[in-house]
Structure formats: C-alpha cells, structure tokens
Recover the amino acids of this structure.
C-alpha cells in the first residue's frame, strides 16, 4: 500500500545509461592516470634517473615527454595519444608501452578468464549442495565446516596459495613447472592459485542465495506439489539464485585481474602484472601509467559487460537499480 | 485546510492527479482506495515528504503531522519512547518531561513507558506512541496512513476509539487513510474515494456509504466482506 | 559477545586474533634482540635445531624475525584501516547532508571507485607516494575507503528511508540532527563490526605490497618483506618462506573469520530468545473412530519447536467434502502452522505429532513415502498469501502448472501444456494461451492468485488449503477470488480449509468457522451463529471489535485489553483467561472443547 509506483523504463535506455556511465568513468580514469605523473612530488624524471643524472639529460627527457608544456596542453596531447593507441615509451628499455601491453595483456586475461570459469563451475554446485544440506539449521556440523572452511579459504591471499602450490607441487613433487608460461601443465598451478579464494566466495554466495530461495512461498508451493528433488532444485531454485551469483562472479573477475598481479609475480608469468611491479620499483613511470590505465579500462569494461548481461537476463533486476 | 489541485508525478507516471480536497477544522476526512490508487502518495505529498505541484492552503504546512502504517518501523529502535515523543517538542529541556507525560496520557499510556524502548511494547502501544509523538508538534492536521492495517483486530478497536476521542475532545482535524471501508466509515465525517490517482467521489459519510453516486464507489461497497452474508 | 564462542569459526577467529594481538605486544621486547643479531657464521641456513625456520643473508634467525614482525604488520594494517574507514565514513555520510547535486557527485565517485580492485588503487597511490611503508599504508587506506563509503551509504540510505526518519523530518528536525541522532547510531554497530574484516583485508594487502617489494623497505621488516626475502630462496630452501607465509595466512584467516561472525551478528541484530515453558497438554478423552466420509480428519495435532515452544497444541479438526471451513485467529494463534502441518510443510526443526492425520481416507502417517507424495501432490492444493511470491519468477506460468501433470500423472509435455491452458481458462484468466507463455511478473496480483488456484486444479484436488489467500489483494479482487474459491469447491466437491485473520471474510465465505487462540481451538460453530450465537468470550469480543458497514458510529468499538500470549508463554490453563471479563479461578484449568448445541463446540468453563 505504501509503495510508490516506479516509472517504467525500457531495456534499451537502461543499456544506454550504462554505456554513458562507462564512458564517463573512462574519461575520469584517463584524467586520473594523466594526473598520476603530475602528483608525484618533485620531478618524476629526476626521481627516475636518480640524483647523479646530468641536468642536460633530465631536461632533454622532460622535453621529450612534453613535461615543459603547459598542463592543459599536456592533457590534450596525452588524451590524443592514448586514443590513438600511443602510450609513450619506457624510461628504462625504450620500447613503446603499446608493444609491452600488446605482448602481455593476452597472457593476463587468459589466466583470469580460465580461473573465473573454474571457480564458477565448482562453486555454484558446491554452494547449492551446502544450502540443501543445511536448510533450516539442519546438519549443523556441515554448516560449521562449510562456513569455517570457506571463510578461511577466502581469507588467504592469492600469493600465499601461489607460494604453497609452488613449494608443494612444483618443488616438492615436481609435478608442474614452478614458473613461466609453457604447455597446458604450466597453467594448472597459476589457475588454482587464482581460483581458490573466489571459489570459496562464490560458494558462500550461492549457498546464501539458495537458502533464501528455499524459504520463498513459490518453493513452498513447489514442495506442496511434491516435485522430485532434482526438478525442484535445478528448475525452480537454481535460476533464481544465478543473478546474484553471477553478479558477484563478474565482480570477482575484476578482483581476479588484480590478484593476477601477485600470482604472475610468483610464477614469473609473462603478463602485465609482472611488468607493473617492475615498472613501479624501477620508477619507469610511462609503463606504470600505461599499464594502470589498461587495467582500469578492463575493470570498467568487465563491469559494463556484467551489467548488460544481467540486464538482458533479468529485466526486473536491472530496473530495480538506479 | 484545503488541498488544491495537487498532482504528483514520478517520471511519466502520474500517481496523484489534480486532487482537490477540503478538510474542515475539527473533522475527520476518510480517504479510501485500493493499492496503487495514490492515497499514500497523496499523504506523503501533503506531509511534504514527496514533491508535488498544487497547493496546501489554510494552515501552516509545518504543522502537518503523519502517523505511519507500521509502528515497528516508524519509531527509532535506539531511542526510548520518551526521547521519540520529545523530539518534536519546541520546549526548554525542563518542560519536556511533563509534556511527554501529558502526551502519553492523551493516548492512554502510563508515564512509565517513557523509559522503555519500542521493542518492549505491543503493536497497539507502539502505534499510540507514534500518535503521541505527532500530537507533540500540536498539529493543525494529522494524517493517519493505514494506521490500523498492521494491528490485530482485537487492538484495532482501541486505536480507532482513540482517533475518535482526539477529534471529539481536542477538535483535531484528520485525514484518515485506509483501504478498509468499514474502518473509514466508522471514524470519518466525510469520505473521499480515490481511484487511479483521482478523487472519484467525496461527501458526508452517510451519503457516500448510503447512496453512492459513482459506479466505482458502489463496486467498492459491494466488495466489503460482511459477517454472515454467506 | 557470547555468540562469538558459539560457532567453531567464531572460536577459531577469536583465538587467532587474540594470539596476534598478544604477539604484537610481547614480540619485539622478547625476540627483538635475537631478530637483529647478525651471525656471519650462519648465513642463509636452512632448517636446523638452532634455527627452526633457518637464517637470512646476515645470519639472523628467521623465526625470531617473524615473531617480531607481527607488531609492524598489525600496526600498519591498523593505521591503513583507520585512514580508510575514516575517509570512507565521511564520503559515505556526505550525500545525506549535502545538497542534491553535490551528493550525486560524491555518490557517483564512490560507485566508480568501488568497482576498482583495491590492489590497483593501492598501486596507483603507491606510485605517487613512492616506495615504502608510507606509500603502502596510504595506498591500502585508499583501497579500504571506497568499500566503507559504499557500506555507509547503503546503511544510511536504508535508515534514511525508514518511517522514523520521515517522522523526524516532519517534526522539523534538521538534517544534521537526523544524521547524528537517527542515522549514525543505527549504523554504527555494523560499521564497527565491519572494521575487523577491513583490518584483515588491509593486513593482507600490505603483506602483498611488501611481498612485491613495494611496501616496507629494509632495514624495517614486516611479514610481507620477510616473505619477499624468503621467496627469492624458495628453490634452495623452501622452508624459509614458510614462516612468514604461515604468519600472514593465520592473521588473515583469524581476522576474516572473526569479522565474518561479527558482521553476521550485526546483520542479524538481537533476536529474543524463546523461553521454555510447560509442554502441551493433549486433549483428554480418546480420539475415537476415524470418520470414513471426512476429506480431512485431524486429531490431537501438535507442532513443537525446540525449547518447548509449542505453537499448535492438540488441535482437532474435521472437514467434509464440499465444505468450506474457516480457520480464524490473530497473528501468532498457530493457524498458518496448522495448515503447514497438514500439508507436511512444517520447517525444520519443528516437530509435528498427531493422534490421527487422515486425508481422503488414507492415514498420512502410515502411507509409504511414494504414495504419500502422490496423494499430497495431486489431492491437496495449497494457496498462499502473497501471489507475488507464490509463483517462481524465473519460470513461465504455463510450465509451472504443467509440471504437476508431468510429474504425478505421467502426462506428456503437450498434454500437460494443454491442460494448463484449460485450467487457466477455467479460473477465468483471460487469454489463457497467451498468459501461460508469460512470466509471473507480467500478470496482475489477482491473476497470479487465479493461476495458483489453477495449479491446484491440475490434479483432482480433494482438499484446498488456502492460507490468507486474499490478504495481499484489494477488496474488489478479494471478492473475485472468494467467488472463485466457492465455485471451485462447488464444482469439484473438494473441501476447502480457509485460513484467515479476517473474521469478516471468513464469515462471508465459509460454512463453518473454527476459532483458534494461542495454538488451541476455542470454538467451532456454524457461520450463521457467528454474529449472535458465539459462546466463547474471545469469539464474541472478536466479532464485537470488528467495525462493519452497520456498526453504530456513536458508540465506541469493543477492544480486548492485553495481548495473546506467545507460543512460549502459554501455560496450562485457559490461555485467554488473562484478558477475559468472565474469568474465574476455574480457568486456571484447561477447559475441554465440548458440545454446545448442534454442530457447535466451545472450550470455556463460563460459556
């Protein structure tokens, strides 16, 4: 009775609003990555080359980077360059940042995507199983084991899994290569290291969602119809839990891309993550700037895709959001 | 107080459409309608909680108070009853205690409830506290939005009796909103029927209930369940 | 705090966190000297008795260094969390007090930042602030802030939408005061409890930064830095990476488990504990012979929950074919649970016991499981209160109807689909063919409730249990649904058990009325006697307190003082005695349900 009627919106305008939001975020990201260099206290070129570098070299480098131009002009040319696919050149190696990204991005994305798929495939059934077993406080032992185990698994960061996996399966048993990208067997440990925590996370969400769903009236009614268990859970329960699970899955993918930085570092995986760490420690600012920009853009793009996908799957949930 | 040409739009949707309604001083106007008729939106607009076009004239808009449907959500769970009731009082600190006591006694609640928290009270008691809080602002108009819908029948009567006694003893003007025509009929001097955002019929209670002019009012009246009709 | 120690996760978390805090306090004074002692004779050693975790490149004992590093690791994490949480709460609270445009700007910024993984934000900040502990702390703080801002915003928005905030605004309370008096106190608890989780996250984030060489720099060392050193030697002496790795893992797990339990406690709030009282007294007198004609026969039905909470106490009920019986009572009277018990849908850990529970002449307690499922699946139709929730939003309406026939009657998909359309038409859903292909959200409330009734008609229902089927509907729609129920009962000869809190609706629809109070039947009477012939003081008061279209407006309405006892409070005597004008000393004893004229029974000593 107290509900205020909500104006109806067409699905198309929802997608449009999301794309506009994406574009605005991208613009903000662009300005932020530009500002990053300028926010560094002192002179980034001097910081990068060290106090012993001759003044002429620093000045020449500054001129080459356009740092002697007025700020608005710099921003303009920065944006023009980035839109043209030009990210500058490395202070250290002199190679174009564009080439660095082109060579390494596929390795990072491949790892993150595979880990997401693995996590979803394991976690959704696991969470449902736990929910069904622990419904209404049944099987308290299982519930305690599940929440404690997943809680602990979520809490351990990727780099610890990586180190443990390397120590045990690569160095200890010698089953898998400890580092580098080679054949399919070289993917196993990095994917595991990346996937364990998200699997635990998604399994928990899946359990909670399934429990919520099991408490609804339409499931009560489906139970009153005495449907066989498989039909009840797969046809009636699962579809209603997927929206929330996939939302979290999508968000975890962005987290995975970030987590891959550490995993790549441990496994010496030739991805962007390894490169960004090097660039920060070596004060190779053009590379750091370019790679952070690319990471940010990927995150925004993934979020946009998840939103659009969910909007298409479940029009009611898309309308609920602002 | 007069509501003049009040309209509320949410985007392209018109929730309240050009409603004009007079609430004569010291009388209870009952507003009845089904869900989505716009009656609650009208209440929120008149209370200033929802932006609207049109006007509310003939009184100080700051002295319009509202009592909500569910007393378990309309009282801050972390405030004592006394603190909630005192919130709207524009009085020096020392005068607040006695005033809270007076307000609680107006709604037939013992003064010692002032130190309790809402969760310690029954639904009917909570709704009385909400009414006492509204009365503290010395309202020129009290809006009651489905105030008995969340209550059990056995306590509903006492709240309705309170509503009537407040009008009789203090001449309080009230806009009483409910989906329940029998309840509206019992407390109201004037009944207004709302349908799809518009007022379809307004008149003295006996006329609207006894000899409805509009087809919609008649269908509402026919739908009222009656004991022992079967 | 008690609930912390109730789950293994809570115990483990509390234990680990306590351990970490103690380590941070006593670690440096006890092992500080040893952690710094350089021993050129013991450089880069592996595991030994003297050095359980080996030594580093200056011959310093790694175990001692791990124990000492706890303080710096925890202190930096705490600092980063406080910076992040402080900034986050301010950012999150601002939109509630700022003017509209500025508020939208802040909200938009927070929404954009939340999407970015913390590590990315931390690295961005670290590039600006430079390598080292300061950069890492600021970076992790920046990573913590958006999450807290979002949490504050969400919590504040839910409180800001509460009726009590609307009420305060109407009373002219200022925005700042609303924020400080209503919003912040109501969101403080979840925010504080979430600090623990954020602290765990910050600790892991800082360890990660140091591990990458971006955080703490020598000669300072935290766990991450020790791990950085150990990792470079992992091929030669894997054990040296073990100590710091275990420390980080245990700290992370401890804070997360504890944070988890605390966050859940915050979400749950304080639910009152049920009090245990005496057990239900079963109806005296035998349960007699089964009634062969009854569709439903219930004797001595009791539903118990752990702790002695008994919401249904020895209830007996008989429903004949073609009969509509109204089960009426106020909230908490046990009427809905009675319906669930008959349908076999009482949620765990509720326990149902009955002297007899017969449906269509078969004893449900004795039937083999498969037959029981078939009988309940086809002969019993249930209709619930909220038609919005009774249909699965993800499935088409037609499919949900059809599956009853597919599962229990072995019908093919086409047959079942056709029958579904036929049933929808039968309950007067317009354009049944098109509606069957639609999803529930495309139907109006009344139409959905019709679809649920049609679902019950897919089999050959002998009993329809309708639990408050019209409570969520408008009166005009309610009327149509009541008519439909009556029509369905007439046509199929099925019996209907109609459960409602609304005695007027029951009076209009039903043939017979069963009044429940505090888990027991207090009166059972033909509907014609409801208005003037009721004998139980509760029934009489209920009828008198209900205003109808003929109520004398010059007289005050009747109302019943006091409230119904909760299922945990019901004692041995008449549960209504405390509110009853007629109560005497005798009412301390439970009155039996005895005959009172024809087809009329009442449980009252004074009736």
């Amino acid at each position: 009775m107290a509900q205020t009627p909500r104006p109806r919106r067409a699905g198309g305008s929802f997608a449009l609003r999301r794309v506009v939001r994406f574009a605005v975020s991208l613009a903000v990201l662009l300005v932020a990555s530009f500002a990053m260099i300028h926010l560094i206290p002192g002179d980034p070129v001097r910081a990068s080359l060290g106090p012993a570098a001759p003044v002429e070299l620093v000045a020449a480098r500054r001129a080459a980077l356009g740092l002697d131009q007025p700020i608005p002009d710099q921003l303009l040319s920065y944006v023009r360059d980035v839109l043209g696919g030009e990210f500058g050149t490395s202070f250290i190696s002199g190679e174009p940042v564009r080439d660095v990204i082109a060579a390494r991005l596929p390795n990072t994305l491949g790892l993150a995507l595979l880990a997401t798929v693995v996590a979803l495939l394991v976690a959704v059934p696991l969470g449902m199983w736990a929910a069904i077993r622990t419904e209404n406080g049944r099987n308290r032992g299982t519930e305690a084991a599940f929440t404690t185990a997943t809680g602990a698994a979520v809490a351990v960061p990727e780099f610890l899994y990586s180190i443990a996996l390397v120590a045990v399966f690569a160095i200890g048993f010698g089953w898998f290569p400890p580092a580098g990208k080679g054949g399919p067997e070289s993917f196993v440990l990095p994917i595991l290291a990346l996937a364990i925590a998200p699997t635990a996370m998604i399994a928990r969400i899946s359990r909670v969602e399934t429990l919520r769903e099991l408490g609804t009236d339409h499931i009560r009614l489906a139970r009153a119809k005495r449907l066989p268990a498989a039909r009840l859970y797969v046809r009636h329960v699962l579809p209603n839990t997927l929206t929330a699970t996939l939302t979290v899955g999508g968000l975890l993918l962005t987290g995975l891309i970030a987590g891959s930085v550490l995993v790549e570092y441990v496994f010496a995986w030739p991805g962007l993550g390894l490169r960004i760490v090097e660039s920060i420690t070596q004060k190779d600012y053009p590379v750091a700037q370019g790679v952070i920009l690319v990471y940010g853009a990927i995150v925004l793009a993934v979020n946009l895709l998840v939103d659009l996908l969910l909007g298409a799957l479940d029009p009611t949930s898309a309308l609920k959001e602002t | 107080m007069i509501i003049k040409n009040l309209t509320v739009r949410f985007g392209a949707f018109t929730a309240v459409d050009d409603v004009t309604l007079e609430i004569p001083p010291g009388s209870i106007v009952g507003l009845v309608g089904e869900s989505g008729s716009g009656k609650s939106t009208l209440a929120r607009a008149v209370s200033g909680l929802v932006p609207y076009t049109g006007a509310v004239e003939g009184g100080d808009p700051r002295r319009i108070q509202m009592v909500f449907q569910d007393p378990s959500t309309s009282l801050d769970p972390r405030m004592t009853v006394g603190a909630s009731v005192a919130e709207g009082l524009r009085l020096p600190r020392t005068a607040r205690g006695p005033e809270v006591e007076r307000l609680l006694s107006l709604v037939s609640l013992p003064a010692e409830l002032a130190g309790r928290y809402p969760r310690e009270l029954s639904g009917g008691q909570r709704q009385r506290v909400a009414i006492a809080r509204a009365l503290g602002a010395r309202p020129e108009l009290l809006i009651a939005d489905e105030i008995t819908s969340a209550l059990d029948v056995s306590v509903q009567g006492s709240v309705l009796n309170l509503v009537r006694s407040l009008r009789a003893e203090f001449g309080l003007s009230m806009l009483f909103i409910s989906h329940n025509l029998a309840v509206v009929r019992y407390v109201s001097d004037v009944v207004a029927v709302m349908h799809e955002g518009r007022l379809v019929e307004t008149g003295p209670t006996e006329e609207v209930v006894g000899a409805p002019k509009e087809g919609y009012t008649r269908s509402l009246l026919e739908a009222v369940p009656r004991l022992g009709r079967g | 705090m008690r609930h912390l120690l109730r789950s293994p996760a809570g115990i483990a978390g509390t234990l680990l966190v306590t351990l970490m805090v103690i380590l941070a306090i006593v670690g440096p004074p006890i092992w500080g000297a040893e952690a710094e002692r350089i021993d050129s004779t013991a450089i880069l050693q592996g595991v030994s008795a003297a050095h359980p975790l080996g030594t580093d490149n200056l011959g310093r004992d790694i175990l001692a260094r791990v124990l000492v590093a706890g303080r710096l690791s925890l202190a930096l994490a705490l600092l980063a969390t406080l910076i992040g949480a402080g900034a986050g709460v301010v950012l999150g609270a601002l939109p509630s007090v700022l003017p509209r445009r500025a508020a939208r700007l802040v909200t938009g910024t927070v929404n954009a930042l939340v999407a970015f993984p913390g590590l990315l934000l931390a690295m961005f900040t670290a590039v600006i602030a430079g390598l080292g502990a300061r950069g890492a702390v600021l970076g992790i703080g920046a990573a913590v802030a958006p999450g807290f801002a979002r949490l504050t915003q969400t919590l504040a928005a839910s409180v800001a939408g509460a009726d009590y905030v609307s009420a305060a605004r109407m009373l002219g309370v200022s925005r700042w005061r609303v924020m400080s008096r209503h919003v912040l106190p109501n969101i403080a608890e979840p925010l504080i409890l979430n600090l623990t989780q954020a602290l765990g996250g910050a600790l892991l984030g800082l360890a990660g930064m140091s591990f990458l060489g971006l955080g703490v720099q020598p000669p300072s060392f935290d766990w991450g830095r020790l791990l950085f050193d150990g990792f470079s030697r992992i091929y030669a002496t894997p054990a040296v990476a073990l100590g710091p790795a275990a420390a980080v893992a245990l700290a992370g797990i401890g804070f997360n488990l504890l944070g988890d339990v605390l966050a859940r406690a915050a979400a749950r709030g304080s639910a009152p504990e049920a009090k245990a009282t005496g057990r239900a007294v079963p109806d005296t007198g035998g349960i007699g012979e089964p009634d062969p004609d009854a569709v439903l026969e219930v004797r001595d039905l009791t539903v118990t929950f752990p702790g002695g909470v008994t919401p249904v106490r020895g209830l007996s009920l008989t429903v004949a074919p073609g009969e509509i019986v109204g089960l009426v009572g106020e909230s908490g009277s046990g009427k809905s649970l009675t319906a669930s018990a008959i349908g076999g849908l009482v949620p765990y850990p509720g326990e149902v016991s009955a002297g007899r529970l017969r449906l269509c002449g078969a004893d449900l307690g004795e039937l083999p499981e498969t037959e029981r499922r078939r009988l309940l699946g086809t002969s019993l139709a249930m209709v619930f209160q909220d038609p919005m929730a009774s249909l699965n939003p993800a499935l088409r309406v037609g499919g949900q109807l059809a599956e009853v026939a597919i599962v229990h009657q072995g019908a093919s998909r086409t047959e079942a689909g056709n029958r579904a359309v036929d049933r929808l038409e039968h309950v007067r859903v317009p354009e049944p063919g098109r509606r069957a292909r639609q999803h529930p959200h495309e139907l109006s409330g009344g139409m959905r409730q019709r679809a649920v009734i049609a679902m019950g008609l897919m089999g050959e229902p002998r009993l329809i249990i309708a639990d408050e089927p019209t409570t969520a509907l408008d009166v005009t729609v309610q009327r149509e649904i009541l008519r439909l129920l009556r029509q369905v009962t007439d046509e199929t000869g099925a019996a209907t058990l109609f459960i409602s809190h609304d005695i007027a609706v029951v009076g209009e629809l039903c043939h017979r009325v069963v009044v429940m109070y505090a888990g027991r039947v207090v009166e059972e009477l033909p509907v014609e006697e409801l208005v003037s012939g009721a004998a139980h003081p509760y029934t009489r008061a209920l009828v008198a307190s209900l205003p109808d279209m003929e109520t004398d407006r010059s007289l005050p309405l009747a109302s019943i003082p006091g409230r119904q006892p909760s299922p945990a409070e019901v004692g041995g005597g008449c549960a209504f005695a405390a509110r009853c004008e007629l109560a005497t000393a005798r009412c301390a004893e439970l009155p039996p349900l005895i005959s009172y004229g024809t087809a009329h029974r009442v449980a009252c000593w004074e009736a």
About this structure: Residues 2-79+138-223 of chain B form a domain with the Rossmann fold fold (CATH 3.40.50.300). Chain B has a mean pLDDT of 89. Chain B touches chain C through 60 residues (CB under 8 Å). The radius of gyration of chain B is 18 Å.
